[in-house]
Write a structure and sequence with these properties.
The protein is an alpha+beta fold and about 325 residues long. It is about 40% helix and about 20% strand. The N and C termini lie far apart (about 50 Å). The structure holds Dihydroxyacetone and zinc ion.
Length: about 325
């Protein structure tokens, strides 16, 4: 509300001398950043051309990456993020894309994503630097008509490649695009401390992880009613782990990589960040419980979950509501 008021006020102020200004209000934890410029999006053949860095999806991407860094999930170059652009976003920035370079093999085939554009983090780039120098740390890539190759169309201005987990990101995108009729656009991988810790003490089983995470915070079954999948330790960055993860993404929006981290899929930046945040928060509670005692004195029971499902109108698969010995 305050932001809207400030924006209106500034808009009046800056349009007084007939110059058009675009005003961006970026709120961070401690301050409000005010950025103005006097460049109106150019209109060519009915399409607005935006500066790539000023477009809403790039701003949302950068904010999400920085939020993840501030949570402590992205030590060094840990983690990666990708976003599948909407057709209108591609058209809005197309005149500002680089001339097409060479096609590079992805390493997996994703024909369901032929011709799509993605904003992705760069391999070896640090999340903490994204907000400072997005054009160095990020890339927009385009996929070819076979879904076997990509080329870089923007970013990585000091060189480099897209994330080492590009095969997993793209295979997950392909699965989710199909299953959600194109709704899911964001895939996020983070090195979530507490979830990783749990993979050393809980059996690496979807049913056990889902049930233990659901039990640790009441909101969990409402936020991820389908549960979570778990992949045992595998070499990251390749085709095998991509295939295994994408298989689990057919059933879940959350996949945990043992001793490594988590992958989440969602419609937009808020929902995807919120999903990963909720899983990790629940894992933190469980780590605290297990640090105090191996035995809970009381917990949320299978019947409690059934009541919750009814009131919150979610369906919770019975496979996760087993009686414990
Ligand atoms: O370094 O997180 O899984 C990026 C990664 C690899
Ligand atoms: Zn990782």
């Amino acid at each position: 509300m305050t932001c809207g008021f400030v924006r209106d006020f500034l808009n009046k102020l800056f349009t007084n001398n007939k110059k058009q200004y675009i005003i961006h209000l970026q709120t961070t934890r401690n301050n409000i950043l005010l950025k103005t410029n006097n460049i109106k999006p150019q209109k060519a053949e009915g399409i607005y051309i935006m500066k790539i860095l000023e477009s809403k999806f790039v701003q949302g991407f950068i904010k999400m990456a920085n939020d993840g860094y501030l949570q402590g999930w992205h030590e060094r170059n840990g983690g990666n993020l990708s976003y599948r652009l909407k057709p209108e976003e591609v058209e809005m920035i197309r005149p500002r894309l680089n001339a097409p370079g060479e096609w590079i093999p992805i390493g997996v085939e994703v024909p369901g994503l032929a011709g799509e554009f993605f904003l992705v983090t760069g391999s070896g780039k640090y999340f903490r630097n994204i907000i400072v120098d997005p054009e160095v740390c990020l890339a927009i890539i385009e996929l070819d008509e076979t879904g076997m190759n990509y080329r870089i169309r923007w970013g990585l201005v000091e060189g480099g490649r897209p994330t080492s987990e590009l095969p997993t990101h793209l295979m997950n995108h392909e699965v989710k695009k199909k299953l959600t009729n194109g709704k899911h656009r964001v895939i996020y991988h983070a090195h979530t401390t507490n979830t990783i810790a749990l993979t050393f003490v809980l059996p690496l089983d979807d049913k056990i992880f889902t049930r233990e995470l659901w039990e640790s915070a009441t909101e969990c079954p409402v936020v991820f009613p389908d549960g979570v999948g778990v992949v045992g330790w595998m070499v990251p960055g390749g085709r095998e782990i991509a295939i295994r993860t994408a298989e689990l993404m057919k059933k879940y929006d959350v996949v945990i990589w043992a001793h490594h981290g988590m992958f989440c899929s969602g419609e937009d930046f808020d929902l995807t960040f919120g999903l990963l945040h909720t899983v990790e928060k629940s894992a933190e509670i469980l780590v605290k419980i297990l640090s105090m005692t191996p035995n809970k004195l009381q917990t949320i029971t299978p019947d409690n979950f059934r009541s919750l499902a009814k009131d919150f109108k979610v369906s919770l698969p019975e496979e996760f509501l087993y009686e414990k010995q």
